[in-house]
Design brief:
The complex is a heterodimer of chains A (372) and B (255).
Chain A: E1 2-6, H1 7-17, E2 32-38, E3 41-48, E4 51-58, E5 60-61, E6 68-73, H2 74-82, E7 88-93, E8 97-102, E9 105-110, H3 128-131, E10 135-136, H4 139-148, E11 165-168, E12 171-176, E13 181-185, E14 194-196, H5 198-205, E15 212-216, E16 219-225, E17 229-235, H6 249-256, E18 264-267, H7 268-281, E19 289-293, E20 297-301, E21 306-310, E22 320-324, H8 326-334, E23 340-348, E24 351-358, E25 363-367
Antiparallel strand pairs in A: 1-5, 1-7, 2-3, 2-6, 3-4, 4-17, 7-8, 8-9, 10-15, 11-12, 11-14, 12-13, 13-25, 15-16, 16-17, 18-23, 19-20, 19-22, 20-21, 23-24, 24-25
Helix pairs in contact in A: 1-2, 4-5, 7-8
Chain B: H1 8-11, H2 17-39, H3 54-61, H4 74-98, E1 102-103, H5 105-111, E2 119-123, E3 126-131, E4 136-140, E5 142-146, E6 149-158, H6 160-164, H7 171-184, E7 188-195, E8 201-207, H8 210-229, H9 241-244, H10 249-254
Parallel strand pairs in B: 6-7
Antiparallel strand pairs in B: 1-5, 2-3, 3-4, 5-6, 7-8
Helix pairs in contact in B: 3-8, 7-8
The chains are: A alpha+beta (372), B alpha+beta (255).
Chain lengths: 372, 255
């Protein structure tokens, strides 16, 4: 069955359904792309963990025949299509895979599996009534989370709830209990508290600006309808439960709620510079640094470096010192969106146990160690 | 080159609350009219003015809604309004002057069948012609008889500088006229150019070649075929003047 389609919409459609970072050997179906031709419509389906994506394109079938389907390596298909520069491309779906014809050139891609054995799931459909509650996708918010918060997510399965992004109302928390690190922003879009995986964040950040999100039960449907394609994706977040664990968001938010008048205002670039100098001169594998706040300066010190960074305001509280790993502290400070940041102490039973870093769009709670 | 001092009085568009309300009432209505005009569904037909771009014809034939205009352009709208008024003035003068040599378009087509069934609508001196078979909808500025020969009349208005520089019809206007000539079977054309500022006119006689007529017919077939196949025809080269104000500019980038 030969199907001819305009190349540019095919490239766009393939980029939408195949998100490279969501292809994982741990979820076998994520490596597949199902191409189905039915009449004048070609449908591309992919799956990721808790994600079903689908895009429909119009084109021209050479002959009228029954629905034909083939399962391919999705990344390979995407890479091939990205190299084609003819205005149209013909895809011949055969028993062994597909033959792509672009101009006078042909390319063969073998099938990965028999489509009679496996069929990828399609996103759920929604009614006009359900569409009335659709949200406009705020892509910049999801990009913000990816660029400034997701680094803080736990990588271990000790406490699996912290391997997710927690979002509820406008609050977004990403953090790791073991590292005593939590980041908070107000860019959330979902009212109902839920836990979003990396895959879902990758999906949300790869959508076009005019995408809409329709809440359906425990899932969300992303929909984009343009002149050249119709895209839908269904993703199902996890929710806090006995099985999935509790993120303890109210406790974390309460911890971040500090008296800002106790903070020192400082240029983040100067702190990063000092931390780089510590790492440059350090002769140990895992250097640690002493981070002290006094009346009018922050001091970053180890055995070879003693950097004094003047603050832009005075500090009236009791001087305090904490121990941090310079590389990790640098990552934390670098994730701030502003060069002017406020650093406040966070206390437990009158003892300073960490810092709260505040900039105009982000709050970070980072626990330090004590001086030995 | 010297700097001139800004005269702020010249920049001000109003000098009182009443003056502001008057200007707001006028400009607000004009913008609202433009928006509602843009929101009207476009007819699924070829338009002779965009025959140069197969991609645009393809969008029109598929019934694709134009891009949403966030900022209506009152200047462009005003230019079109002045152009329409000038057309009417020229046509009225020519009708009076030429008498029976100002030819009624509907009557002419009935007497000289063009091979298509046409629907006619009179709009002042213009005749709107709709041919469902192609499908196309266009306004014929007029047909005149001079020295016993029938000519298709095409009126164009332009800025004075552009008009002053003219030595022959503009190439993109000829693309439009080729379509009229092809459909109406009138290869001889008189192009009348009027400047919008002072009302000076220039006219040029042109004959459309048989090859151009065949090419135009081929384009109708080609675009209709691409509509059936759901395949986008090639776009005009980047930075073509037609793309600047094209109502399908954003959608075109998708294909």
């Amino acid at each position: 069955m030969k199907f001819t389609v305009s190349t540019k919409p095919l490239k766009t459609a393939t980029d939408l359904v195949v998100i490279d970072s969501n292809v994982s050997k741990f979820y076998h179906r994520s490596i597949l792309l199902q191409i189905t031709v039915d009449g004048n419509t070609m449908t591309l389906n992919t799956e990721g963990t808790a994600i079903f994506s689908q895009v429909k394109l119009i084109g021209s079938a050479e002959t009228k025949s029954d629905k034909v389907s083939v399962l391919l390596d999705n990344v390979l298909f995407k890479k091939l299509i990205s190299t084609i520069n003819t205005p149209q491309v013909t895809i011949d779906l055969t028993d062994n895979g597909i033959v792509v014809t672009a101009g006078k050139s042909t390319y063969s891609l073998p099938k990965m599996m028999d489509s009679t054995e496996v069929s990828l799931n399609s996103p759920a459909t929604f009614t006009d009534k359900q569409f009335e509650s659709a949200l406009d996708m705020d892509k910049s918010s999801w990009k913000f989370i990816k660029e400034h918060q997701i680094y803080a997510k736990s990588q271990t399965t000790e406490n699996p709830v912290y391997t997710y992004v927690w979002t509820g109302d406008s609050d977004v928390i990403v953090g790791d209990m073991e590292k005593s690190l939590f980041t908070h922003s107000n860019v959330g879009q979902f009212d109902k508290p839920c836990l979003l995986s990396d895959n879902i964040i990758n999906l949300l950040t790869s959508m076009p600006d005019d995408a809409k999100i329709v809440p359906i039960g425990d899932s969300y449907i992303i929909t984009v309808k343009s002149d050249s394609y119709e895209y839908t994706a269904q993703f199902t977040p996890k929710y806090e439960s006995e099985q999935n664990g509790d993120y303890n968001a109210p406790i974390i938010l309460d911890m971040m709620n500090v008296d800002e008048s106790t903070g020192v205002i400082v240029n983040s670039d100067e702190i990063i510079n000092a931390l780089n100098q510590v790492m440059l001169l350090s002769d140990v594998k895992k250097p640690v640094v002493n981070f002290s706040v006094s009346k009018d300066a922050i001091t970053i010190k180890d055995s070879r470096v003693n950097c004094v960074i003047p603050t832009e305001n005075g500090y009236t509280g009791n001087p305090y010192s904490l121990i941090f790993e310079p590389a990790r502290l640098k990552t934390v400070i670098s994730s701030c969106t502003d060069s002017v940041i406020k650093i406040c102490p966070t206390c437990m039973e009158d003892e300073v146990v960490g810092i709260i870093i505040i900039d105009k769009s982000l709050t970070i709670a980072y626990g330090g160690g004590e001086l030995e | 080159m010297a700097f001139r001092q800004v005269n702020f009085e010249h920049l001000a568009k109003f000098n009182s609350d009443a003056a502001f309300k008057l200007i707001s009432a006028y400009e607000g209505q004009i913008i609202s009219d433009i928006r509602s005009e843009c929101a009207k569904p476009k007819s699924r037909t070829f338009a002779p003015s965009c025959m140069r771009c197969d991609r645009k014809s393809w969008f029109r034939l598929r019934g694709v809604q134009p891009d949403i205009i966030s900022d209506p352009d009152p200047v462009l709208d005003h230019t079109a309004y002045i152009g329409t008024a000038l057309h009417e003035r020229i046509q009225s003068a020519l009708e009076k002057s030429l008498g029976e040599d100002w030819i009624d378009v509907e009557q002419y087509i009935k007497e000289h069948p063009i091979g298509y069934n046409c629907e006619f609508t009179k709009n002042g001196h213009e005749t709107l012609i709709y041919i469902p078979e192609i499908p196309i909808k266009f306004a014929c500025d007029g047909i005149v008889r001079i020295n016993g020969k029938y000519y298709l009349l095409e009126i164009k208005s332009s800025e004075y500088d552009s008009w002053n520089a003219l030595t022959e019809p503009k190439a993109h206007h000829m693309d439009q006229v080729k379509t009229y000539s092809t459909i109406l079977g009138l290869p001889d054309v008189l192009m009348l150019y009027i400047d919008r500022q002072y009302g000076y006119v220039k006219t040029y006689e042109k004959s459309i070649l048989t090859l151009d007529i065949m090419n135009t017919k081929d384009r109708f077939v080609y675009v209709k075929g691409m509509v059936e196949k759901n395949l986008a025809p090639d776009r005009l080269p980047q930075n073509d003047y037609m793309c600047t104000n094209c109502e399908y500019k954003l959608k075109c980038r998708e294909w």
